[in-house]
User: Fold DUF1853 family protein from Aequorivita ciconiae.
Amino acid sequence: MNSVLGMQAEACFEAFLKCSKIYKLLTSNLQIHDSNQTLGELDYIVRDLKTQNVLHIELACKFYLYDETAGISEEEKWIGPNRKDRLIDKLEKLKEQQFPLIHAPETQQKLKDLKIEIPTEQKLCLKAFLFLPIKMDRIHLPKNYNDCIVGHWIRTDDLKEDKAALYAIPHKKEWLLPLENISEWYSFPQIIQRIEEQLLNFKSPLIYKKTNLKIEKFFVVWW
Assistant:
């Protein structure tokens, strides 16, 4: 991962591993090269302190919206806010590129040079933030998807003024921050103007809506 969100997630996950009593971090962000180019990168190599097995872990942090029309399988229906990526694409890249890299001769030699055993297991740690269409019931989704649902998505026609609410439109680099770190809140007319500016640029903004009772998270999509 090299996005802002990716780097933030990596920093958090690496801090977790360094404090963990379950895993020992052996190396992270290990770049693999041949004589001409970079072949790829292994996110984390860790030792399971209970089994003593060495694991290769790939980390992903993704915000996905559920679109029933985007495909046939469930993995095809989870798409990025701007329809630029899909869960199925991430899983296929993992299967076809990231996991097989461990078997490359260059990787084997690199690990040998570092005196690290070849991992016997590979795992994906996917931190997903999932958003459903506003009228969709989550009851039919598998539990592992349900556990990751944090909000919904709407179109501009679904926006209704709530004079008792305040709204925020966090920058992408703020999406993982605690809500108390968000300092700029707007009235409904003010947020509508900012939403429309984003939609004109084919960007689907993430919106926080705050009342005395709760805070809602939702995307307003341009598509």
Notes: The chain has two domains: 4-129, 156-220. The chain has a mean pLDDT of 95. The beta strands are 23-33, 38-48, 54-66, 78-79, 121-133, 149-154, 166-168, 206-210, 215-220.
